[in-house]
Design brief:
The chain is mostly helical and 318 residues long. Helices cover 78% and strands 3% of the residues. It contains eleven helices and three strands; from the N terminus they run αβααβαααβααααα. It has helices at residues 2-11, 28-58, 65-93, 101-134, 139-142, 145-171, 187-191, 199-234, 237-267, 274-299, 301-315; strands at residues 18-21, 98-100, 179-180. Strands 2-1-3 form a three-stranded mixed beta sheet. The radius of gyration is 22 Å and the shape is globular. Its main location: membrane.
């Protein structure tokens, strides 16, 4: 009987483009408080990241490699969270949680691009900090505008190619189910809709994850080891303070993103904790995106001074 049922599942194909999202099981009294909390988080994310983007673009003194790279991070945060949060909020207050298959694929594509691009951009920012601290006299000749744009394009290009293959392998599968066992669409939730053999998806997904985390962790570890080594050899107080000021914010953001990403991947292997996995993935999107402008604004003197000057101009009586 089990063999017959399995064969039936494999042969059954669903042609409907409408999918149901499982979402969160939320008590009615917590529905609107959670909705308004996410709404506040989303608007604060928009305000802070757009504000920093406008400030960096309009202030010529901030047209430096570090701030151009930070613009990449803000743009990535805005895209990744705009694809996720509005629909998540709509599903929280709605009794019907439906999404088309194409919308689900787009959401999964942008979600994975957000994660991979975040890692790539932070690695490039670590390289920028390494050159600035370890080779200060050659910094302007190494980190030219052309180099920064080339590095940024590489980060986005590699992320888009890797994620395109990841999602492409899933889109080719037929579907025998129509319920997304998640609060959002991601690659794993999509290929779990199929009754076909998904070994290739699992192998490439593992390759994608190992490659991304190896390059990310390896790049960050190598640059920070070199920075720490230079600081230890030279024993220069000014150099050490500059390294701490510019690297602390970057390292904090990277560790937050790294561990929230690890938690999401690990929890996908434990189906008994579905709500915890959903929360971890949302935190992976939301927490770094809200902390990026705050931490960099507080740690980076030029950006902090510009923000203070603008606030003083706005608040001072005319």
């Amino acid at each position: 009987m089990e063999l017959c049922a399995t064969t039936l599942d494999v042969n059954m194909t669903i042609s409907s483009d409408i999918l149901e999202i499982q979402g969160f099981d939320i008590s009615p009294e917590f529905t609107y408080p959670l909705f308004f909390l996410l709404l506040f988080v989303y608007f604060s994310l928009l305000f802070s990241n757009i504000g920093v983007l406008v400030l960096i673009i309009t202030e010529k003194s901030l047209h430096q490699p570090m701030y151009i790279l930070f613009c990449n991070l803000s743009v990535n945060d805005l895209i990744g969270n705009t694809v996720l949060l509005p629909q998540l909020m709509a599903h929280i207050i709605s009794t019907e949680r439906f999404i088309t298959y194409n919308q689900c694929v787009i959401q999964a594509f942008h979600s994975h691009t957000f994660g991979s691009a975040s890692h790539m951009i932070l690695v490039i920012m670590a390289i920028d900090r390494y050159v600035a601290i370890c080779h200060p006299l050659r910094y302007s000749s190494i980190m030219t505008t052309k180099t920064v744009f080339w590095l940024s394009a590489t980060a986005w290009g590699v992320s888009l190619v890797l994620v395109s293959v990841l999602i492409g392998l899933t889109v080719r599968l037929s579907r025998c189910r129509s319920v997304i066992q998640n609060a959002y669409c991601d690659n794993a939730s999509l290929f779990k809709l199929s009754c076909e053999d998904v070994s290739i998806n699992n192998i490439y997904g593992l390759f994608f994850t190992v490659l991304l985390f190896s390059c990310s962790i390896g790049g960050i570890a190598a640059t920070y080891f070199r920075i720490a080594l230079i600081c230890w050899i030279k024993k220069n107080k000014e150099l050490n303070n500059r390294a701490l000021q510019t690297c602390a914010s970057h390292l904090v953001l990277y560790l937050i993103m790294l561990w929230s990403g690890f938690l999401t991947i690990i929890l996908h292997r434990f189906p008994n904790y579905p709500d915890l996995r959903k929360i971890a993935y949302i935190l992976f999107h939301v927490v770094p995106a809200n902390l990026n402008p705050i931490i960099y604004g507080m740690q980076t003197r030029s950006l902090r001074d510009k923000i203070i000057q603008i606030l003083q101009r706005k608040l001072s009586p005319t």
